[in-house]
Structures are given as C-alpha cells and as structure tokens.
Amino acid sequence: MIDFLGSPWLAYAVLAVVTAAARLRCGSWFAPAAFVGLVWTFFTGASLLVADYPVPGRGMWMLVVLIVAIQLGALIAHEIRPQRDSTAGLDRTIELESLIVPCRKWGLICAALAFVGCVYFLFESLNEFGLPFTPLGVLEVGAKWTLLRNEDTFEPWAVRILITWFHPAALLGGILFACSRNRADRAIAILTLLPAAAYGAFTGARSALLLGLTCWIGGYVASLLVRNHGQVPLFTVKRVSLLLAGAGLMIAMFGAVDTIRDSSWSQTFTFDLRQQKLANYVFAPPAAFADWYAHFDAIDPQWGARTFAGEFDLLHLKTRTVGTYLEKSNILGTESTNIYTIFRGFIEDFTGYGAVLVAMLLGGLAGFMYGSISHNSRRAIFWLSMFFASTLYSPLISLFSFNGATLAWVVGWMVLTRPKSFPLFLRLPPAPKSEASLG
Questions:
Q1: CA–CA dist 166, 168 (Å, integer)
Q2: DSSP 8-state assignment for residue 304
Q3: From CA 116, how far away is CA 132, in angstroms rounded?
Q4: Which of 71, 50, 70, 62 has its CA nearest to residue 8?
Q5: pLDDT tens sequence across 213-239
Q6: What percentage of the chain exceeds 90 in pLDDT?
Q7: Gap between the Cα atoms of 348 and 369, Å rounded
Q8: In angstroms, rounded to a whole number, what is the distance separating the alpha carbons of residues 4 and 144?
Q9: Average pLDDT of the segment spanning 389-405
Q10: How many Å apart are CA 86 and CA 402, to the nearest integer?
Q11: How many H helices and E strands in the chain?
Q12: At 41, is the pLDDT very low, low, confident or very high (cuts 50, 70, 90)?
C-alpha cells in the first residue's frame, strides 16, 4: 500500500484527473487551469516513460502538488470572475486593429537592433577565430562559441545588449500575427524570429530559438484568445497540423544545433539527430526534479535569485551560475541533465510551502486575467501572454531567469498601454443635417 501511494504514476493520474476536470469546468484548453495541466501532463508522462530508473514518488508528488496549486488558483479565480462573452464585437476588433501599427513598428525596430547585433557578432567572431566567410566558417563560429561558453566566456557586452532585443521583437511579432490578417503583416511577424534563429546558429545554443519561439507563441495565443472572445478550440485539424509541424521544426533545430557544435572538428556539415540526447533534453527535467527533491536538503530561501537569476546577476545581488545548476542527474542512459524545471527555483527561492502559495497566486492572477478578456483587452494580452510563455518554458526553467524575457514584457507593456489610436472617421461624430436639407 505504501509503495502504491508513493508511486509516481499515481501522482501523474491525479494530475491528469485534475486537468480533465479543469477543462470541463472552464470550457477551453486555453483556460489557465486547463492549459498548465495539459502542458505538464504531456511532459511529465513522457518523462516517466523515458527515464531509465525508477522515478522517486516523493519528488513526483511534490511536482504534481505545485502544478495542481497553479490550477486551483486559476479555478478559484474562474469561479469568482468567470470569462464572459462580450457583445461589443466591433469595439474588440477596433481595439486589436489599433495594436497593428505599434506592434509592426516596434517589432521591426527591436528585430533590427537584434539583427545588427547578430551581424556584428558574426564578423567579429570570424575575425577573432581567423575563419573565412563561408558556410563552413559560419558553422564553425557556433562550434567555437559552444566551447567558450562552457568555459564561462561570453559574448562582448555590446553584442549581448543588442541581441537581447530579439525577445521583445518575438513577443510583438506574435501579437501582430494574431491581430492582423494582412499577409505582409504576417510575413513581418514571422521575420521577427529571424534574429533569434541567427543568434542560435552563431552561438550553437538551442535556448535562443526556444526563447524567441516561446515569447512569440505567448503573444500570439493571448491575442488570439482576445480576438475570439476566449473561445479558441485547440484540437482542430489545422491546429494539430501546426503543432506537428512545429514539433518537426523543433526536432530539426535540435539536430542542426548538434551539427553546428560538431562542425569544428568534423570539418563537414553532416546532419545527425541523436534520439537519446533529444529525448533527454526535452523530457528529462520532470524526472530530474523528482530525483532532486527526493534528496533535497533545506537551504535558506533565495527570495527570487533562482526564478529571476538574470535580474539578480545584472543588479549584482547574486552571481548567476552558467547553466543555473552545476550538479547533473543521469536520466537516460549516459546522458545527463542540469535542467530541473521552474519548480526547483520556486522551492529554493520560497521553501516548499512558500512555493505552493506562490504557485496558487500565479494561477489566480492568470485565471483572473482570463476572465477579464471582455473588459480590458490590452491588459489581458499583456498578462496572459506572460502566463502562456512562462508555462511553455516551465518544464525547462523560469523564463524570467533571462533578462531578455523581462525586457520583452517591459517593451510589451509600453506598446500595449500607449494611448489608443483609432481611425479618424471613428472619432468624429456624424455631421448634423441642416434645416434646409430637412425641408
């Protein structure tokens, strides 16, 4: 009986049941309570399947408790302020159309700054390493920077400052894609991801493209919900096809980055997808968290230094460790990971009980803003985009441990809260008819 109650699969079953109940109660997979459960049900189940050793039940139960705490917070907010359909359909359309110009303008500006940083970084690296400006030479830049980053060597500050603008570019691009049906605008929205992809190629880092995509998807989903009054079905043929295409793109990206990292010593460009390494990188963190928590010794609360590692480092409050954690866990064969999900940071920052409280508060905020879609579209886009992006990145680590993510939503706040601008004909009252025309 004790072994059964301590089973990680029982904890997983509880998560699946709560998630199904949240979907039935809220009526949408994009409701915060259902969405966070859907994401974590998928990643946790996959992690339990790929792990090569028995996952500690104690650690898995703690993981599920924290996820369910987010769901309960969101469900409580849903009951207090349920999402209602708005009858002001024209006002909603005008509201979103008023975001097209500023998102296009500032998205392009941010993308241009980041792309300038990418170009500067590429040619400086080619010059420093004595490499030719050829396809193989460009690939070798990524391989050499992979080695340098492992030795705690980073890009010049000028490059890092410019590059970080790809985060707000991606966020605004996602909002633009959802708000505008114009093909040119949508092409611009997709191009805002180019700096993140280029930076990932030049540094041999997966995180750059993952961060760009996460910010983009967060902005897109939040804006799509506002545009459709919160009624967005997830499992349609079109969206399932897009999900599968996105998964294929991510797998291809994973193999391409490994190819870039190997190009320095192989002197060739040979695409090689290592399935075991891919499974470990994508699905290992939940099992790694469970293993870590099962052997966790209480430490003094860090009060945000893990969840906001980049910001604490920038303010010289606490030095950030490269890769966040030095110790590694063996999850799958010879592969190891030092990625322990967002929840390890929560526990180290606020203790176990504090982490549960923080999780409930975050879920409550997301649920409250989901219920506010009909009342304040811009504010809902801001907070919900943050929630969706953070949730998608949470199986890895806190999204806001990166300064660029914080910058993205600072810029997003300025764009979304700017004075509304409507077409001139909507602001002018109709001219009164003269007595002569009436007679």
A1: 6
A2: T
A3: 20
A4: 62
A5: 999 999 999 999 988 877 787 777 777
A6: 44
A7: 28
A8: 49
A9: 93
A10: 36
A11: 20, 2
A12: very high
